[in-house]
Design brief:
By secondary structure, this protein is α/β, with parallel strands linked by helices. The protein is built from 25 helices and 22 strands. The protein folds into four domains: about 140 residues, Rossmann fold, CATH 3.40.50; about 150 residues, Rossmann fold, CATH 3.40.50.2000; about 210 residues, Spore Coat Polysaccharide Biosynthesis Protein SpsA, Chain A; about 80 residues, Serine Threonine Protein Phosphatase 5, Tetratricopeptide repeat (Alpha Horseshoe). About 5% of the residues have low confidence.
């Protein structure tokens, strides 16, 4: 067994962050040969220097969350063999005013990120920030003890307890859904709000159970609750939160209603382990559904308990031990350029053709060939490999062509596209998926159209459908629009990342692809861009879209609900200015009807009924009524 001695430096031993990311793992680390000594960072500068000098006696320093001033950074780097930095909050932003650029915080974060040999981030969003200054970044979620199966708390009354757990600094997020809680209290006289915290709020229409937080009582207080609440404001700081309360709810077997912000939207699978809610009306709607349906609460709670097992302290603790024990100081390499002539610096290109890929080595070869066959030649190829294990990197190297290739740990399609934007050097950016193909004159046509708009518009085209062998079997017949396309785009997706061209400045000045979305992050971004920029449609297809079994976007209940979440969030957060209410209701109703149909196909008849009822309420229509009747009949038959 490899043995390692680690000096752990923390700023506050009472913080939940230290308790759940370091303290809970100490026994597991010890069993794996990692022996840690934990020291609190002193306030006195001379005492801090004295502590840093102790680093020479250890194999590694694990610095938890604390950013460093200039002198501390010099001393720690001087005396440390290697430094691993662990953090689980967006410490580069001010919690009170995240919209402001706090240069002091950002500089301190850059300093500690740059001097570290390895960074361990709590989620993808934080990892992306760290990768701006360090290429050796790993993602390790916050862990908890999930073993609560043997503990039972039989109900002594008919109350439905909505529970929120948090701290004084986060109770403001609960305050933001106060109108929804008041409405729930008016509708349901058996509803109770349970707050587990060191500070509390009161409601006019609902009783509040005030439970002082303690390590000993928090688990029983959660286990005897019914529905977990996780409201969160969407800003640059909150997107970095690691969703620990959601893991606590899931471990307690509770369904969760959450704001789809950051990892919250990953940890709560919409319509599976809970619900996503954006507006106050959605909070009322989702909580009401759970209050009225005990079987749904039970089913979602069970699914959540299964999901949360991957975040158990035993699982995460062993991963942390692996990071510490297997660290290779020579593995720091950011961007690898494979070129015919390594001594030739890449010239500035007009277009960056960007490819996100994951384990699609064979298809990627064809995609690259479709780029090499372009009639337009003033381009660079940029590839972000999102954690492939099939030899993609070696295949690209063996092609012997000029390409910028970047490998990162698997973080999802949106994160890969964000990295592509960062690496691209061209005036224009054009995406192509690693299983799709560009038409031979696509880039030439796109550039001509973009130049005619003086580089101020997004240009896009349609596509041919091809099978897994590359044979054309159809053409997309959706109508395309130019100019102000927001009202049309809200109704359906017709702009795709592939076969389009974007002025690079537009993508760099805009909010990035949302990494919390497993699919539709491009649709989400196009909607936002369409409110500020002109879109131009080309009459002919610009790419070939391949259909095969591993397509991420193939139709399913989960994917339908993600698409619904995207357009509903857009409408609630600024879209009302561009979409008439009647049109919005019609579109949202249609999306819910489609989701209801896929719920039926997947045998989820109860959920199908719920979605189809919601669809009909948004806009009465015959199709929803027909499918609702079918769902109810089938549900009745299957129960009997």
């Amino acid at each position: 067994m490899n043995v390692m001695n680690v000096l752990v430096i923390i700023s506050n031993p009472t913080r939940a962050s230290y308790r759940q990311r370091v303290k809970v793992h100490l026994d597991i680390l010890r069993s794996q040969g990692v022996f840690a000594k934990v020291e609190k960072l002193p306030h006195n500068p001379l005492q801090r220097k004295k502590l840093f000098r102790q680093a020479v006696n250890y194999d590694c320093v694990l610095l938890h969350k604390k950013a460093l001033n200039y002198l501390d950074a010099i001393w720690l780097r001087k005396y440390s063999r290697k430094i691993i930095y662990d953090f689980d909050d967006a410490i580069m932003y001010n919690t009170e005013h995240p919209e402001r650029n706090d240069l002091k915080r950002q500089k301190a974060f850059q300093r500690v990120a740059s001097l570290s040999d390895m960074i361990i981030a709590g989620n993808t969003y934080l990892a992306e920030h760290a990768r701006k200054f360090n290429t050796n970044v790993h993602i390790l979620p916050t862990a908890l003890d999930t073993r609560t199966d043997d503990v039972q708390f039989p109900k002594k009354d008919d109350k439905i307890r909505l529970v929120w757990i948090g701290s004084k600094s986060t109770v403001r997020y609960l305050e933001e859904i106060r109108p929804a809680l008041e409405e729930i209290g008016s509708r349901f006289h058996n509803a109770v709000l349970r707050i587990i915290c060191d500070t509390f709020i009161d409601l006019e229409n609902m009783p509040v159970e005030k439970k002082e937080w303690s390590l000993e009582t928090q688990v029983p207080d959660l286990l005897s609750s019914d529905i977990g609440l996780a409201p969160l404001t969407d800003n640059r700081f909150t997107r970095g939160k690691c969703g620990f309360k959601i893991l606590q709810y899931a471990a307690a077997g509770l369904p969760v209603v959450t704001s789809p912000v950051g990892v919250n939207s990953e940890y709560v699978r919409d319509n599976v382990t809970g619900f996503h809610a954006v507006s106050i009306s959605e909070w009322v709607e989702k909580i009401s559904v759970l209050i009225q349906n005990p079987e749904l609460r039970k089913r979602m709670g069970k699914a959540g308990k299964e999901d949360v097992e991957q975040y158990d302290i035993e699982v995460i603790g062993r991963k942390l031990a692996d990071f510490l024990l297997t660290y290779d100081p020579n593995k720091k390499k950011e961007t690898v350029n494979y070129r015919h002539n390594e001594n030739t610096a890449p010239s500035q290109k007009t277009v960056s053709i960007c490819i996100p890929t994951y384990n699609r080595k064979n298809y990627l070869r064809e995609t690259i060939q479709s780029i090499l066959d372009q009639t337009y030649k003033d381009y660079e190829i940029v590839i972000v490999d999102d954690g492939s294990t099939d030899g993609t990197g070696q295949m690209v190297k063996e092609l012997g062509i000029s390409v910028t290739y970047y490998w990162q740990e698997n973080s999802g399609d949106a994160a890969a596209r964000n990295k592509l934007i960062e690496l691209a050097k061209g005036r224009y950016i054009s995406f192509i998926d690693s299983d799709d193909l560009l038409m031979p004159d696509a880039i030439e046509k796109l550039v001509i159209a973009a130049e005619s708009e003086k580089g101020e518009a997004v240009v896009y085209g349609s596509y041919y459908r091809i099978d897994q062998d590359g044979k054309i079997y159809g053409r997309c017949k959706r109508k395309l629009y130019s100019g102000n396309i927001t009202p049309h785009l809200f109704k359906t997706i017709f702009v795709h990342a592939c076969g389009s061209i974007f002025p690079a400045k537009i993508l760099r000045q805009s909010p990035a692809f949302d990494t919390s979305l497993r699919i539709c992050s491009d649709y989400d971004l196009w909607l936002r861009l369409s409110t500020r920029h002109k879109f131009i449609a080309l009459p002919e297809p610009t790419f070939k879209r391949r259909r095969h079994e591993t397509n991420l976007s193939k139709a399913s209940l989960e994917n339908c609900m993600i698409e619904y979440q995207v357009i509903n969030r857009f409408y609630e957060n600024g879209g009302r200015e561009f979409i008439p209410p009647a049109s919005a209701k019609a579109v949202l109703s249609r999306k819910q009807c489609r989701a209801g149909r896929y719920a039926m196909k997947e045998g989820m008849y109860e959920r199908a009924c719920e979605l189809l009822v919601e669809s009909f309420h948004k806009k009465p229509n015959l199709k929803s009524l027909i499918y609702l009747t079918k769902a109810k009949v089938t549900r009745s038959i299957t129960k009997n």
